[in-house]
Amino acid sequence: MSFFIKRLAIIGVGLIGGSLAQSLREQDLVGEIVGMARSANTLETALQMKVIDRATHSLTEAVEGATLVVVATPVCSIVPSVQQFVPFLSKGAVVTDVGSVKGNIVHACDALMPEGIHFVGGHPIAGRERAGVAASFASLFQGSRTILTPSPTTHLPSMELVRLVWESTGSKVETMEPAHHDQVLAATSHLPHLMAYSLVNTLSDLEEDLRSEVFRYAAGGFRDFTRIASSDPTMWRDICLENKNAIIGIIDRYIATANHLKEFIGRSDAEAMFDFFSRSKTTRDRVLAENKNLRGDAQR
Description:
Layout: E1 5-11, H1 15-26, E2 30-36, H2 40-48, E3 54-56, H3 59-63, E4 68-71, H4 75-85, E5 94-97, H5 103-112, E6 118-120, E7 122-125, E8 145-148, H6 156-168, E9 172-175, H7 178-204, H8 208-216, H9 220-226, H10 233-242, H11 244-266, H12 270-295
Parallel strand pairs: 1-2, 1-4, 2-3, 4-5, 5-6, 8-9
Antiparallel strand pairs: 7-8
Helix pairs in contact: 4-5, 7-11
């Protein structure tokens, strides 16, 4: 890869930031890695795992002299963090983020950048239900997608650097307009997570005797579908706050579709139900095949 990061600052050392740091270090693409987190235990773990070289609780100390700053905090904290540390950035520094909501973040962070310092919105789509730096690993992004969300004022050489960084991890990098990104992610990521949370809460609200039987006999399908309901509640609260309009829109569409299925069942319309399920199966099979090709599984 045709880049080298002299000093990388990870703001919010967790699964994503920690995995990125490990991938770059394995490939000798980075010099010093500085990690910032509020939790002393997080920083201690990151040091023990050799994810970072230096730890700090201070945003301003973390970014001093950094070539690249990666903000990997919950989405509601990204703009306030950038606002706090931007006066301490060195000339030529590039700032990027990993948030799964982009519209407000890109607009606000672009406006905060002084002359000679540039922001590039980014979103690696490679999360897991387990969070924290202890869950991080260097190959997390292999075969994944990363979306960069440039604005009309994005500095193209800075975007190229961020693209090379994510490509070096094994991720396929694509670009998308920020507002369009938020609509796409509301449908493909945010809605499934909210459905999983809703299903678990629906079953939890059943009468006590029925609830105990439901969870006692929960099989693989329940575990598979609800796995993502073990994701970090703080992260998903913040995503809903930041991407409210797109999420409400896709929930409304889902409710309408579920009501159609309810009507089919209510009138015992076997043909309509079969068509509904067949269309879903065909769509899912196609999506899985496309993702398999992306990962290179078809060649293995």
